[in-house]
Design goal:
alpha/beta, Aspartate Aminotransferase, domain 1, Aspartate Aminotransferase, domain 2, 2 domains, 4-stranded antiparallel beta sheet, binds 4'-deoxy-4'-aminopyridoxal-5'-phosphate, aminotransferase, transaminase activity, Ethylene_sulfur-biosynth, Alliinase_C, pyridoxal phosphate
């Protein structure tokens, strides 16, 4: 912190504040490093050794629709969903992808190309929606799909795909489809359940939608492994998604698949050992540990915003979690911060407090809101709380 330097106001004039900051903190991206300390303790257990002669082939399992998915990864994913109870994998097809980012595009390809419409199908999501959907939909200016904007405002009598993100990125809300069925267009759904894990939200039901996307990035925090998976009811859609991944990357790294399968095995084994009577301690269980971290961050954030009416964050309803057997609220990976003293929350935080966040307009919403990540490093989160507390105190005097 460097005290007593002049700050530039939005209108270009300068004012003297008692405090300014000499470095930026970046809370824009949702890089999930918050869970790193937990995995540091599991470093040895999660280690995988891959010999020079192993994993040469493109192929993994020619009997499976997703022929490049390794059977050990498929089994690990099924085991994980059975443990958590968040998604039904029985009689469903699993397709692995390079993150759920690739699977989202594979899903658009599969659903658009099996639509009866000759025109590009409209892809919509209720605002505020995950900022990347729009660009991922339109990047290739495809002739089969195009971004259609806010699902709440969709009123065309044309085919559409609605993306339902629950809990939602950026605002943490629990969601279902919203497009008005009276519009008459043929509608398909993609459920992006990246955050439907116990550290972020109570597991209230076993999801069993036609096409669900999950990502290892947000489940355990191993975003760098780039593993996501889709759980798909219809075999033809699963085949088309597999074809898309074949066309764009001829499969998914087997080193990554092996590593992810191992980490899931370690995670699930610790629950088995816990149930077997104390072979694992409760604090060693991943979802218990990560849930506590998220809860603590939210409690601190709420404490700071309670003191200061200039910023506010949404409230979430309580629900019973079938996984923890407790009632709790949602602790989203992002805070959807409303800045009550400036029209542009992103630029206010950047200029005044040197905090980088993503503004509401990127999510099809109001610029008075901004999204900030709660998955970053402890130091950055602590510094963020300090800065908004200092800011509030200065305005009080
Ligand atoms: N969907 C949502 C809602 C996300 O927040 C993210 C990551 N920020 C993704 C998908 C993409 O995740 P991945 O790392 O698996 O590509």
């Amino acid at each position: 912190l460097v005290p007593n330097l002049p700050l530039n106001n939005k209108d270009g004039s300068s004012s003297t504040s008692s405090t300014t900051f000499n470095s930026y903190i970046n809370l824009d991206q949702g890089d999930p490093v918050v869970f790193k300390e937990y995995w540091r303790k599991k470093s040895e257990e999660c280690m995988v050794v891959i010999k020079g002669c192993e994993l040469l082939s493109y192929l993994s399992d020619l009997r499976s629709v997703c022929w490049f998915m390794m059977p050990e990864l498929r089994d690990a994913i099924k085991r994980l969903h059975a443990l958590v109870g968040n998604a039904d994998t029985n009689d469903m097809y699993i397709v692995v992808g390079n993150g759920s980012t690739q699977l989202f595009q594979a899903a658009l390809y599969a659903l658009s190309s099996s639509s009866s419409s000759d025109d590009p199908i409209n892809v919509v999501a209720a605002a505020p929606y995950y900022s990347e959907y729009q660009e991922q939909t339109d990047i290739l200016r495809s002739g089969i799909h195009k971004w259609g904007g806010d699902a709440m405002k969709y009123d065309k009598n044309e085919a559409y795909i609605e993306v339902v993100t629950s809990p939602n990125n950026p605002d943490g809300s629990i969601r279902g489809p919203v497009v008005n069925s009276k519009c008459g267009g043929e509608g398909k759904l993609v459920h992006d359940l990246a955050y439907y894990w116990p550290q972020y939200t109570p597991i209230t039901h076993m999801a069993s939608h036609d096409l669900m996307l999950f990502t290892f990035s947000k489940c355990t925090g191993h975003a760098g492994s780039r593993i996501g998976w889709a759980i798909v009811k219809d075999k033809e859609i699963a085949k088309k998604m597999t074809k898309f991944i074949q066309m764009s990357s001829i499969g998914v790294s087997k080193e990554s698949q092996t590593r992810v399968a191992k980490i899931i095995e370690v995670l699930c084994d610790s629950y088995k050992n816990f149930k077997l009577g104390g072979l694992s301690k409760e604090s060693e269980l991943f979802f218990e540990h990560s849930r506590r971290l998220m809860m603590e961050r939210w409690e601190k954030l709420r404490e700071v915003t309670k003191q200061n009416s200039d910023f506010s964050v949404p409230k979430f309803p309580q629900a019973y979690c079938n996984f923890t057997n407790e009632t709790s609220e949602t602790y989203p990976a992002f805070a959807w911060l409303k800045c009550n003293k400036d029209e542009d929350c992103e630029s206010y935080l950047e200029k005044k407090l040197k905090i980088l966040v993503r503004g509401g307009n990127r999510f099809g919403s109001d610029p008075r809101y901004a999204r900030l990540s709660l998955l970053g490093k402890d130091d950055d989160f602590g510094e963020f709380l300090k800065r908004i507390s200092i800011d509030m105190n200065e305005f009080r005097h």
